[in-house]
Specification:
The complex is a heterodimer.
Chain A: H1 6-12, H2 14-28, H3 33-42, H4 45-59, H5 65-80, H6 88-104, H7 111-128, H8 132-159, H9 162-165, H10 168-176, H11 181-186, H12 191-205, E1 209-211, E2 215-217, H13 222-248, H14 251-268, H15 275-289, H16 294-309, H17 314-320
Chain B: E1 13-20, E2 26-28, H1 34-45, H2 49-60, E3 64-66, E4 71-76, E5 82-90, E6 93-95, E7 108-119, E8 124-135, H3 137-141
Antiparallel strand pairs in B: 1-2, 1-7, 3-6, 4-5, 7-8
Helix pairs in contact in B: 1-2
Chain lengths: 321, 150
């Protein structure tokens, strides 16, 4: 990854640079935090975002042969010739492959995969321009637009859904969804309940069984109810706050929005294994924070490592313990 | 489940698929091929008739043959314990590359679309039949493949 020279960075914003050096000396001389902030500040925004998006497309890619092949070729080209990232054709190929894949499998594609494809089109447009300021402007506009759209639209949809508002959805998933089994155990829900419910559900789905009244009882607990209601309003509250705060476009509200978004990323993608979504939210957050809030941008960089670490099989460890 | 989450989604939807023969008898298809299952899952994501028809056409195009003798339907109580066997029994059909001479070559396909709902107050999981879609042989195979296959 290309790192712009310190001289260039200072020339763009000497005040910020001085601030960072001071921060580096006072807060991070022993722990390296200052150096990390300085490192983040000196990254080239467009190139960093391009690399992070390519990593996203490779690691959390669309599950289709066309996208796998094209993203693999793109990665190989980048490895052999890093400057290929700056070519519009590079992003056009990736965006087109993603779009075709989504058209072919549109019913099954997760919504964050749609977001990945939109974002690759944004990068294609960005690289059509030669002027760095223009590129940055397009990137910043789209990052804010998508973050506001995602969080406000998701909040509106959840508020409109009675089964979501009531906490019914999360309570049900805490019992039956294996992705939540480890988290459920941590909040005191016996994983055996999930196994029993799965076995009972087999009868509901089978044409060779006739279940009385078409319903089955779940040996649940009040803990699941409390956890589900807390998860529901925690999730909705954070999402609404992020979308609304970013809409205002004030420095102070932006800063709070970033802190809430980071909290959302660090906490949501630990229990919820939708890592690609976390990654793209972090890309957009980093885009907006990079020049304005170097410390926050550094936290976004750390969140990428956290998302990778969250893929450790900790759920199996919890369930086995 | 994603950013746009609600209880009514694929995880809480399922289908029961039956072959319906010209004499009115029905055979459930509990073991679909991966391709059939893929199309059926897509239809369950967006449960429009044309999406179910696409799945039904794929399912109807397989050669279904009975694998075992008739299997009785079990009566199961709310705790998930089988309590008795009903009089009703079905054959277990499997997709095969071999074509049975005795099987109906142009069966209709019935897809029952079911939804699961959870009631947090009673802690009961309830399934209800949302829709039954019956696709006749003309709709499934058309004039292209009314399988008189001489």
């Amino acid at each position: 990854m290309k790192i712009a020279s310190s001289r260039r960075s200072s020339a763009i914003n000497p005040r910020q640079s001085r601030g960072a050096s001071k921060t580096g000396r006072s807060a991070g001389s022993s722990f390296g935090v200052g150096h990390l902030i300085e490192f983040t500040r000196n990254l080239d925004l467009i190139q960093t975002i391009s690399v992070l998006t390519l990593v996203l497309a490779i690691i959390f890619q669309l599950d289709h042969w066309l996208f796998r092949i094209v993203s693999g070729i793109c990665f190989l080209m980048f490895a052999l010739r890093p400057s290929s990232l700056r070519q519009p054709l590079f992003w056009f190929a990736l965006a087109l492959a993603g779009t075709i894949t989504i058209i072919l499998t549109w019913e099954q594609v997760d919504n964050h995969k749609y977001l990945l494809v939109y974002w690759t089109w944004v990068l294609f447009v960005v690289h059509l321009f030669r002027d760095a300021e223009q590129q940055k402007h397009i990137l910043l506009f789209n990052a804010r637009f998508f973050l506001c759209l995602i969080f406000l639209a998701a909040s509106a949809q959840k508020l409109a859904s009675p089964s979501y508002r009531s906490g019914e959805m999360f309570e049900h998933y805490l019992y039956v969804d294996p992705r939540f089994a480890a988290f459920g155990k941590l909040v005191g829900i016996n994983p055996v309940v999930g196994d029993v419910v799965t076995r009972k559900m087999h009868f509901l789905r089978s044409p060779f069984a006739d279940v009385e009244g078409n319903d089955i009882h779940i040996e649940g607990s009040d803990r699941a109810r409390i956890a589900a209601v807390a998860m529901t309003w925690w999730d909705l509250g954070l999402q609404l706050a992020i979308g609304a705060l970013l809409l205002l476009r004030w420095r102070r509200t932006d800063e709070i929005a970033h802190i809430v978004l980071l909290f959302f990323i660090f906490t949501t993608y630990l229990p919820a294994p939708v890592f690609g979504f976390g990654w793209i939210l972090a890309i957009m957050g980093f885009t907006l924070a990079k020049d304005k809030f170097p410390r926050i941008a550094t936290a976004y960089l750390l969140s990428f490592f956290a998302i990778l670490l969250y893929q450790l099989p900790w759920r199996d460890w919890v369930l086995r313990s | 489940m994603g950013m746009f989450a609600a209880a009514d989604e694929l995880a809480n939807r399922y289908a029961k698929v039956f072959l319906v023969h010209s004499d009115g008898s029905r055979d459930p298809l509990p073991q679909l091929t991966p391709e059939d299952q893929d199309l059926l899952s897509r239809a369950l994501e967006y449960p429009a008739r044309e999406n179910f028809l696409r799945a039904a056409r794929m399912i109807g195009s397989e050669n279904w043959i009975p694998a075992f003798q008739r299997r009785p339907v079990l009566k199961v109580n709310g705790n998930g314990d089988p309590v008795s066997a009903e009089d009703k029994a079905f054959r277990v059909m499997v997709a095969s590359p071999l074509r049975s001479e005795s099987e109906d070559r142009n069966p209709s396909v019935e897809i029952q679309f079911w939804k699961l709902t959870y009631d947090p107050h009673t802690r009961r999981l309830h399934c209800s039949l949302a829709e039954t879609l019956l696709f006749g042989s003309q709709e499934l195979y058309g004039s292209r493949r009314m399988r008189n296959d001489s």
